[in-house]
User: Which sequence fits this backbone?
């Protein structure tokens, strides 16, 4: 890996000029200390130009020979998962650290191969929800057994999504997966992250496919933690309004939190739901921008100090495996 | 059989109108969406959709050229005003260019053109864009199409965010209505929109501009009472916090102290110099500091306990409703929303085992 000093300003190259880049990553990076935007590259020259102009950096149309991409200390990879492998190989060869938008890749085997190309600190995956204040608190209360062992998790996320942006073509073609790959991987990652599970088993699943695109997934799974298995009910949908919450069930109470950034976890007595208390989560992000900021700062600190951040790609492999297992279960004949 | 094209069928209102319209005998609803992702919900509920860019004149003709009426709910919402304005104009031109000569065109506008939330009566950008669109469409339709402009109020319906919000507020007993909810709500049910479309298409109404609201007009209290009784829950009204309750730090000294409180390093340095000043000044500064700190902490507490108004406190508007519409509840039962039960439910959190 290229030698980066702790006090160096890091140059960031951005691959992909889609909505997540122009609306979130670029505004956040422009507010980060110790970074310099080196360029924005996209196969669509106009998209790259627009994003680069607003944030005062260089626009590049992605060349057919990727080696012509300029050097940078860190690259943000925000292109569809199927198109990423050549970039991983290029940046690994150059010693450039990479923050890849979630999910890292579509298959566990590819994920392992990609992770083997980089030192652990130099490759991160954008599961920025791990920095939510509520998620940090939930992880702590499970790890420290505040309420006893975690017995079950229930996750339901999504809404009737009918409005489409310019990126809808990816979902129409099914090239980047559907609701599970796009939205559902976040909630799966949170369930694994909070419970401290290493792997999952799919017990039962129900997919609603629209052509090749999955638009709703409901599953019953087991999360395997160091202290045993924990059941999970999981629903993610683009077809109806979900609760958008995560519930953690313990022996005597249930902890509920929003899938979105928030400040509170609500604890309810299992024997009397009217009896509840609220835990204030202060350590972490309570807005989306804060979450991305914390993700970037944690990753960049890791790059400077050669220490893997909490967003390191190896830790995202179990989520990739869970997503893959669900798709495999869906494709198996009944 | 009347074939009615719904442009922007993937929007919140368009989707529900399509689902209700398809239940009407003698009507074939033709939802138009840009891409299959947008139309997934309708298609999975058994409604055939057409896909294409209405903003492209050639595509527009293929999409809507065989229809007996065109309803336009489409609205670009990229967030970039210049892009939205350009796309919205192209959509209007596409609708007029693609529609068969002489068929009615119905444009979904908004009550926001009246700038109901402001004393200045100057519409916000959304209201202004809709007003411009109304005028553009009137020019484009002249002598070619009968034009109906429906200025929609707050839209209520099983798939509408506003309805979901109202139901949640009732359930959580967090309802705070301006003037005890006795003001006009300017709401409209999707079933009323369906009825208005049918009346326009069937020639029962003259072309023109209409405010689409419940007929007779419902107050906010009636709206909330309706949903509370549907849910079998009591309607508990709260009092909204007054906007002016939040105290402001007055005076240079207090503002400086507020800044001082936030900056620990500066505070520590200044404490050193403060010791050189007379005791009286020290005491005054210290008291002010405590006061500022208390104010700030109480402020944060107030903020967390604040009860916001559930609905906008609009001034009363002199509306021009469409005549001859039945009351909202009659229309709700006349045009039911039928989609598979799985999609009609709004709560899908499964209980934890």
Assistant:
């Amino acid at each position: 890996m290229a030698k980066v000093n702790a006090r160096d300003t890091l140059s960031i190259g951005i691959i992909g000029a889609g909505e997540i880049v122009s609306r979130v990553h670029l505004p956040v990076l422009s507010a980060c200390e110790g970074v310099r935007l080196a360029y924005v590259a996209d196969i669509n020259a106009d998209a790259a130009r627009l994003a680069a102009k607003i944030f005062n950096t260089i626009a590049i149309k992605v060349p057919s020979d990727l080696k012509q991409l300029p050097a940078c200390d860190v690259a943000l990879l925000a292109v569809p998962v199927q198109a990423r492998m050549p970039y991983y190989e290029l940046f690994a060869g150059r010693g450039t650290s990479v923050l890849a938008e979630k999910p890292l890749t579509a298959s566990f085997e590819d994920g392992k191969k990609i992770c083997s190309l980089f030192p652990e600190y130099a490759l991160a995956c954008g599961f920025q929800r791990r920095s939510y204040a509520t998620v940090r608190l939930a992880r702590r209360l499970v790890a420290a057994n505040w309420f006893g062992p975690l017995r079950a998790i229930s996750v339901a996320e999504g809404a009737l999504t009918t409005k489409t942006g310019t990126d809808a073509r990816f979902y129409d073609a099914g090239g980047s997966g559907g609701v599970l790959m796009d939205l559902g991987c976040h909630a799966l990652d949170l369930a694994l992250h909070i419970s401290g599970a290493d792997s999952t088993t799919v017990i039962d699943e129900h997919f609603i496919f629209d052509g090749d695109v999955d638009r709703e997934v409901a599953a019953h799974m087991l999360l395997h933690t160091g202290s045993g298995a924990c059941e999970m009910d999981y629903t993610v949908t683009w077809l109806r309004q979900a609760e958008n919450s995560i519930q953690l069930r313990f022996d005597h109470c249930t902890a509920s939190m929003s899938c979105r950034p928030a400040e509170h976890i609500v604890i309810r007595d299992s024997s009397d739901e009217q009896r509840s208390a609220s835990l204030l989560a202060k350590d972490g992000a309570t807005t989306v921008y804060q979450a991305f900021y914390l993700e970037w700062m944690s990753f960049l600190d890791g790059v400077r100090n050669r220490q893997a951040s909490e967003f390191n790609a190896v830790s995202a492999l179990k989520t990739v495996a869970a997503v893959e297992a669900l798709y495999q279960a869906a494709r198996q004949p009944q | 059989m009347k074939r009615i094209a719904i442009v922007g069928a993937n929007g919140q209102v368009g989707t529900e109108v399509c689902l209700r319209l398809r239940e009407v005998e003698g009507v074939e609803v033709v939802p138009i969406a840009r891409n299959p992702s947008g139309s997934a919900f309708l298609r999975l509920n058994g409604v055939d959709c057409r896909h294409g860019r209405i903003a492209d004149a050639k595509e527009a003709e293929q999409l809507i050229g065989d229809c007996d009426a065109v309803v336009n709910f489409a609205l670009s919402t990229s967030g970039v005003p210049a892009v939205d304005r350009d796309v919205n104009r192209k959509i209007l031109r596409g609708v007029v260019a693609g529609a068969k000569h002489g068929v009615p065109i119905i444009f979904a506008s908004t009550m926001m053109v009246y700038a109901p939330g402001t004393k200045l009566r100057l519409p916000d950008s959304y209201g202004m864009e809709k007003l411009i669109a109304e005028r553009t469409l009137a020019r484009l339709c002249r002598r070619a199409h009968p034009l109906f402009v429906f200025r929609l109020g707050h839209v209520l319906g099983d798939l509408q965010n506003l309805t979901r919000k109202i139901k949640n507020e009732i359930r959580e007993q967090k309802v705070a209505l301006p003037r005890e909810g006795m003001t006009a709500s300017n709401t409209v049910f999707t079933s009323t929109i369906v009825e208005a479309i049918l009346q326009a298409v069937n020639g029962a109404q003259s072309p023109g501009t209409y405010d689409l609201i419940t007929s007779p007009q419902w107050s906010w209290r009636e709206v909330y009472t309706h949903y509370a009784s549907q849910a079998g829950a009591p309607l508990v009204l709260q009092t909204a916090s007054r906007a002016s309750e939040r105290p402001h730090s007055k005076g240079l000294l207090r503002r400086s102290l507020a800044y001082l409180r936030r900056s620990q390093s500066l505070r520590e340095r200044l404490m050193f110099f403060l010791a050189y000043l007379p005791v009286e000044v020290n005491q005054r500064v210290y008291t002010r500091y405590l006061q500022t700190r208390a104010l700030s902490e109480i402020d944060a507490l107030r903020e967390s306990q604040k009860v916001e108004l559930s609905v906008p406190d609009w001034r009363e508007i002199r509306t021009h409703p469409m005549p001859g519409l039945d009351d909202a509840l009659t229309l709700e039962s006349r045009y039911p929303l039928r989609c598979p039960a799985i999609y009609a439910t709004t709560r899908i959190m499964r209980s934890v085992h």
